Amino acid sequence: MDKKELFDALDDFSQQLLVTLADVEAIKKNLKSLVEENTALRLENSKLRERLGEVEADAPVKAKHVRESVRRIYKDGFHVCNDFYGQRREQDEECMFCDELLYRE
């Protein structure tokens, strides 16, 4: 191999190294962006889980309150079932649809 061929081979190798280095830098930049996004999503997920826990803790209290309100409406002489909702119960007769709604678990 003469000097010119050796110099050309070394120059080609140098160019390939520069291209590879540019690719590595691009991958590094992309990886950094992904790590930052992952960290932000983990924080958001953690906050959402905390908020969900708070909401779930409040839910049984609200459900109990709603159920009591519906029972009061029924005791006042009105239907609470889907079929006759809001209609007055004649002589406060029992309605099996309302009972099913009020006493199911």
Question: What does the model show?
Answer:
With 105 residues, the chain is mainly α. It has one domain. 77% of the residues lie in helices and 0% in strands. It has helices spanning 3-75, 96-103. The longest helix has 73 residues, at 3-75. It is rod-shaped, with a radius of gyration of 36 Å.
Structural descriptors:
105 residues, Replication initiation control protein YabA, 0% strand, DNA replication inhibitor, single chain, DNA replication, cytoplasm, coiled coil, mainly alpha
Q: In oligomeric terms, what are we looking at?
A: single chain
Assign the structural class, choosing from mainly alpha, mainly beta, alpha/beta, alpha+beta, or little secondary structure: mainly alpha
DSSP summary: helix tally:
2
Report the sheet with the most strands, covering strand number, pairing sense and barrel closure: none
Residue ranges: pLDDT <50 for 5 or more in a row?
A: none
Helix content range: over 70%
Count every beta strand, where a strand is a DSSP E run of 2 or more residues: 0
Q: Report the order of strands and helices.
A: HH
The best one-word shape is rod-shaped
Mean pLDDT comes to 88
